[in-house]
Write a structure and sequence with these properties.
The protein is built from eleven helices and twelve strands. The protein has 336 residues and is an alpha/beta fold. The chain has a domain at 8-185 and 230-256 and 299-314: NAD(P)-binding Rossmann-like Domain (Rossmann fold, 3-Layer(aba) Sandwich). It has a six-stranded parallel beta sheet with strand order 2-1-3-4-5-10, sandwiched between helices. The protein has a two-stranded parallel ribbon with strand order 6-9. β1 (13-16), α1 (21-32) and β2 form a beta-alpha-beta unit. α6 (197-211) packs across α11 (317-331). It is globular, with a radius of gyration of 20 Å. The termini are far apart.
């Protein structure tokens, strides 16, 4: 059961991945809770290798000096789309498993528990079995093997959840575990070699318009469905879990809807202006059916988030897409 609300007034927070896509929004959410920048420590990869035990130990020793951290929010991950997962299965398993392993263990040995601190682990819906009944419910997490193209990443994140559960049972570590659905929004990764579907489609459409291309190729058949959560909504759910939960009951964070990749592609083509009418869409979008679709369907049951956290997503999907497209156009020149 949730403990009384965490008091942020004197919290000292480590946010791994805090300089990244989701991390920027989590830090903004913390600021709304009154956590000033001098009480948030964001480790940078150039300074701390979180896959290395010594690097993690140095992080805990460095952040806030002798006072130590009171909250750790672990967002950092090595992850990408279907192509990146197929190319890097070993690295994705090792990096994500190693980071969680060292960060959770050092939370135990650094005095975080004795300070009444908390550890929040962000998981992934890639941990769900390939053929999970839709909508995905947290109790189904163990009912099968994940979709093959991203199983190593998903299994690593699921193992982190089990480590938290064990540390809660044996050492009394106050912790939480959330599973955000596919995220999108400002500051997303728009690198076509490693990006997820929404930023990839936005960039493909905008780049095609800039080049004057008549058509663009999209992976798969378009039949798979996905659910998407605006990143600021995800950040509010993560912070809410951190401040209310003391045990790692898995909690889905989603928008409670799904859309096929075909319909998503058509919508982005229209919103970017690449193919603003239905007849243009039919002529200008080409489906490469030799490429994989990934997991057939993804849509979450978010009842537990509503009941335990009092949290629901707030951003309408089309509004979030428009904001993301606008951000990409404003920053296009800064993106490689």
């Amino acid at each position: 059961m949730p403990d009384p609300m965490l008091d942020w007034s004197d919290a000292r927070v480590i946010v791994t991945g805090g300089a990244g896509f989701l991390g920027r929004h989590v830090i903004a959410e913390l600021e709304q809770r009154g956590v000033n920048a001098d009480r948030v420590f964001v480790p940078r990869r150039r300074d701390f290798d979180l896959t290395d035990q010594a690097g993690v130990e140095r992080l805990y020793d460095t952040a806030f000096g002798a006072d130590g951290a009171t909250v750790v929010i672990h967002l950092a991950a090595e992850v990408g789309g279907i192509g990146a997962n197929q190319a890097n299965p070993g690295r994705y398993f090792y990096a994500n498993m190693a980071m969680a392993l060292h960060l959770i263990e050092r939370a135990r040995t650094s005095g975080l528990i004795e300070r009444g601190g908390r550890f929040c682990q962000v998981g992934t819906i890639c941990a769900y079995p390939k053929f999970t009944p839709v909508p995905f419910k947290e109790e189904d997490l163990w009912n099968g093997y994940p979709e093959e193209t991203n199983a190593p990443y998903g299994v690593a994140k699921k193992a982190a959840w089990q480590m938290l559960d064990a540390y809660r049972l044996q050492y009394g570590l106050d912790c939480s575990f959330v599973l955000p659905v596919n995220l999108y929004g400002p500051w997303d990764n728009f690198d076509l070699q490693s990006s997820h579907v929404i930023p990839a489609l936005i960039r493909k459409c905008v780049d095609a318009m800039d080049r004057g291309d008549e058509a663009l190729d999209v992976w798969g058949t378009g039949s798979a469905s996905r659910e998407f959560l605006y990143v600021a909504d995800a950040a509010s759910g993560i912070v809410r879990a951190c401040e209310t939960m003391i045990e790692p009951t898995p909690i889905n964070l989603g928008a409670s809807f799904e859309i096929t990749i075909r319909d998503l592609t058509h919508l982005i083509a229209k919103l970017t202006g690449f193919a603003p009418t239905d007849d243009q869409i039919e002529r200008r979008i080409r489906w490469d059916t030799s490429k994989p679709d990934g997991q057939p369907r993804r849509c979450l049951d978010t009842t537990r988030a509503r009941d335990l956290l009092g949290w629901t997503a707030q951003t309408p999907f089309e509004e979030g897409l428009e904001q993301t497209i606008r951000w990409f156009r404003e920053h296009q020149g800064e993106i490689e």
